[in-house]
Amino acid sequence: MADGDSPSEFKLYHYTPSKAAPVIFILLFLAITTQHTWQMIKHKTWFLTAFIIGGIFEIVGYIARAISARQAPDYTLMPYIVQSLLLLLGPSFFAASIYMILGRLIVLVGGQKHSIIRPKWLTKIFVVGDVLSFFVQSGGGGMLAKASTPSSASLANNIVLGGLILQVLFFGLFVLVASIFHARMRGDLTLCATASSLPWSRYLWVLYVGSLLIVVRCVFRIAEYAGGQEGVLMGTETYLYVFDAALMVLVMVVFSVQHPRMIIGREKVAGYRMDQLYS
Question: TM segments (predicted)?
Fold first, then answer.
């Protein structure tokens, strides 16, 4: 928090935003989102569209943040609202793609009997949870962006906190489902998995890594909003780039290097068609 701020004073930023940092992350997210878009088109992995949308949210969010940085100290409201909302919500789209990958993977290795949730319900349950978390966060984020008093900001903080906690809870359940499936598969490998060249175990580890990075980011955001407008995390810009921006770049890099393209082109496994995942 900058010197001279009083507890009752509401400010859009409690520091002067860096001009260089958002530009660096604009370029990083632009490069990796472009790479993901090319990979999606080349391999026809259309179910990863949400991943691209998440990247676009990050790009536009940091563009808005760069605009805010150049307006200091006379900030306008719109760039602040845009960066606040898009940077808060972008990871929800990464989460949606991660949820969809697991459901497809279970079907492709014929491992339905090893999943504690039926594949056609698994994706629906977690994506619905992600959407619910998204709307709670966006509602709170919208209120926070327009808050003009400490009391309204506190209420908005609590709503965002609820959405973030909900997201972490769903991720925890997701990791539990994935790890139980993984353990059961290792103990009783299916015929489809044995005969297939699909590196299903490696993809599961990729999902674990991606999930961990997003959960760490969500825990940071929970601590940030729990601390409120006067907290150290919300009052120190460096934490945003270390525990949010950098981690989300890593998520995109991991899923580019270990791109789930091998999930496509295997329409029938153990009597299931891929479209049955959503029927």
Answer: 20-38, 45-64, 84-109, 121-139, 159-182, 203-223, 238-257
